[in-house]
Design brief:
Largest sheet: 4 strands, antiparallel
Shape: elongated
Number of strands: 7
Number of helices: 4
Low-confidence stretches: 252-259
Distance between the termini: 128 Å
Radius of gyration: 38 Å
Helix content: 40-55%
């Protein structure tokens, strides 16, 4: 009986030793694998750098050995020529950097399976110009040393100028989307209409408002008050139609001169 128990204890000890040995072997294999992976990664990274350097060297040598010719052509097709009839008085120019983004998300089975979102962005310098129409109604009143002017409506000149030389574009697909190029092309196609829309919004009009006011003041001084004896001391106050609610007293009702 005791001999059987002793044999059982010996088997248990041997089993524990075997399990311990297997654990240490497993840990050793994992450690060696990790170290080997890091070493291999570093080797590949350095090898890639060496290959890149060699490639750059041969590329530079090849550039010096061959002659390169670049030809650019230009075609023009006139689609429309329109006269302004001398009716446009340009007042202000605003230069901004505009950013446009288009996000395209898709899911399956309603919202159960999300396929990702493709996001495209374009950042581009834009030049906005603003004008008024000389043929529209003006109202001018001179009283004492003040000339009060109600000018025609401030308008954006369309289309704005898009500076493609400063354009930056980027696009990234969602994890199960493959339409980064298409999404960016659609955003670029919609660029001009969206810039035109921004040109006429309140924020952009306000950016050009004070510069436009100064331009109208100088126009009135040079072409309307040119022969007035007190032009040097005359104060010119300019108001646009969309400001009348906020500045009712700038131009008194009734009277005045209509151009």
């Amino acid at each position: 009986m005791e001999e059987t128990k002793a044999k059982g204890r010996e088997r248990a000890i041997e089993r524990d030793r075997l399990v311990g040995c297997l654990k240490w072997v497993g840990l050793t294999v994992v450690g060696v694998s990790l170290i080997g992976g890091v070493v291999l990664w570093k080797f590949i990274e350095q090898s890639a750098g060496v290959v890149q350097g060699v490639g750059d060297f041969f590329h530079s040598v090849a550039d010096k050995m061959h002659t390169r010719s670049v030809e650019e052509t230009f075609r023009e097709r006139i689609t429309q020529v329109v006269s302004t009839e001398g009716d446009v008085l340009e007042l202000a120019r605003v230069e901004t950097e505009e950013t446009f983004t288009r996000a395209d998300s898709r899911s399956l089975f309603g919202e159960m399976l999300y396929l990702g979102t493709t996001i495209s962005e374009i950042r581009v310098p834009v030049i906005y110009r603003y004008h008024l129409k000389l043929s529209e109604a003006w109202k001018i009143e001179i009283r004492d040393q003040e000339c009060r002017v109600l000018a025609p409506m401030l308008r954006p000149s369309l289309p704005p100028a898009i500076r493609t030389d400063g354009m930056e574009k980027k696009s990234a697909s969602g994890w199960l989307r493959f339409n980064a190029v298409e999404n960016l092309l659609q955003l670029e196609k919609d660029l001009t209409p969206r810039v035109e829309e921004r040109a006429g919004d309140k924020r952009h009009l306000n950016l050009a408002r004070e510069a436009s006011r100064r331009s109208v003041e100088q126009f009135v001084r040079k072409w309307v008050l040119e022969d007035h004896p007190d032009i040097g001391r005359m104060k010119v106050l300019v108001t646009f139609p969309d400001e009348l609610d906020a500045t009712r007293d700038v131009l008194p009702s009734g009277g005045g001169v209509k151009l």
